[in-house]
Structures are given as C-alpha cells and as structure tokens.
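Input chain follows. Return structure tokens only.
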Amino acid sequence: MSVLSAWIEGISLFAPGLTGWDASVPLLAGAADLALAPTDIPKLTVLPPAERRRVGQVVRLALATGLAACEAAAADAAELATVFASSGGDGANCHAICETLASSDRLISPIRFHNSVNNAASGYWGIATGAMAPSAIVSAFDGSFAAGLLEALCQLAAPTEACERILLISYDVPYPEPLAAARPMGDACGVGLVLARQPGPLARARIDVQVGGFADETRLAGALENVRLGSPSGRALPLLVGLAGGTPAHCVLTLHEAMTLRVDLAGAS
C-alpha cells in the first residue's frame, strides 16, 4: 500500500480551551489538564474594513487559523496553495437566508448569497492575503479534516504539480437552531497545518499517511475527547496530541465508515 508523506512546518489550533498551538502543547501532551472554555478566535485585521463587516465567525476562524499556521512556518501566505476543509461552511448565514425565504420579504442580499457558498473562506483568504495560488475546498461531514489532509498530501505528491508547500485549514462553527438540532456540534474549532514536500530547516515532524480500513479506536483523555467529538475539525486532535507528545507517534483518522487514514509521525531529521 502506497504511503503519502510530507513534512509539517507550521501548526495552528483554536478550540474550546485551546488558544493557539504553543499554549495548547502542554494540554495536548497531558502535562496540564484542559479546562473547557469558549473558543477564542483572534480578532481579524487583515481584511479591509468593508469586507470585515461582511464576514461571519466561520470566515474569521478560517483566516485566523490559516494565518497562525503560516506565521508558525515563517511562510508567506500569498504564495501557498491551500486546502480548505469544512463540514458545513457558514451555517449562520444559511440560517439567515432560510429565515428571509420564509418571510414575506424574500429578497436575498447578494452578500448573503456569496457568503453562503462553501468556498467563501477561500475567497476572503485571497482578498486578505493577495494569494493567487490554487485553492481546493473539501467537505466530508465528520471526515472533513481527514479528507482535507488527504487532498493536501495528494497535491504535494502529484508529479506534475509545482506545489512544494501547501496550507491545510480545517474549520467548523456550530449551526444555530433549528439546524443545530439536526447537526449538533460543540464550539468552534480550527486546525491549520503547513505541509512541505521536502524537509526544511523549520520542519517539525514527518507525516506518513496510508489509506485503508484501519480500525479507529481513538479515545483521548479527559476533556480532549469532548473537543475531538464536538466538532468535525476536532477529529484532528489525535494527530495534534501525537505532535505535542513528541515523535514517533501514530493515530487513525476516520474519513467515512469504510475508509480510514493511518497517520505515522516521525522526527524531522
């Protein structure tokens, strides 16, 4: 079975009680207990004021997550190809559109419409950073992070691609009611990884991924399990726990019922 490999250069994390990668490492490694708290999304300053007023929490989370990963990797955000992975995009905006359609005034704002599509965060990323590199958008229910990771690794492995580094941004925000009753989630969660085709001076670990039917028996300690199960992007936590605890490490990530990813982490040297 073929193995997809890359080197992790930058990591970001915003989740309940986990604010930024550096502050989260001791909590993920078990050196300190996680106290769940509302997700703290950094203030967004990179968009022009007019655009900033138009975006919701989903776009703010995606951009903050991506920018933090780029900063950790000392990478120019404008130069990186990107993969955006989200289970459902901007549910609050879709809820507002549904409310309008159910009212007597059924005129939809153009801003509402263009924010409703699943590639809205990718579009705002281009506005904020000036990026013109290729951008892919994936959505796979609870397997969205795994799908995004697989997409990013495949792009790095493609022999005809000029992609040497790629940014994966996985982000999810709970839906408002009544959508939340059909698709319950915990709090917002964003995970970012800068992945490189070749090892460089900033490489933190090598990641090797195999696709198959590996058994996923993951269960994290304490409140970390609540974060993992509370959001599709939270399914990335086993990988992040491995990175925080030091390599070598391995985990299994579920893409869907019949497909999982075995992830092995090794030292960068």
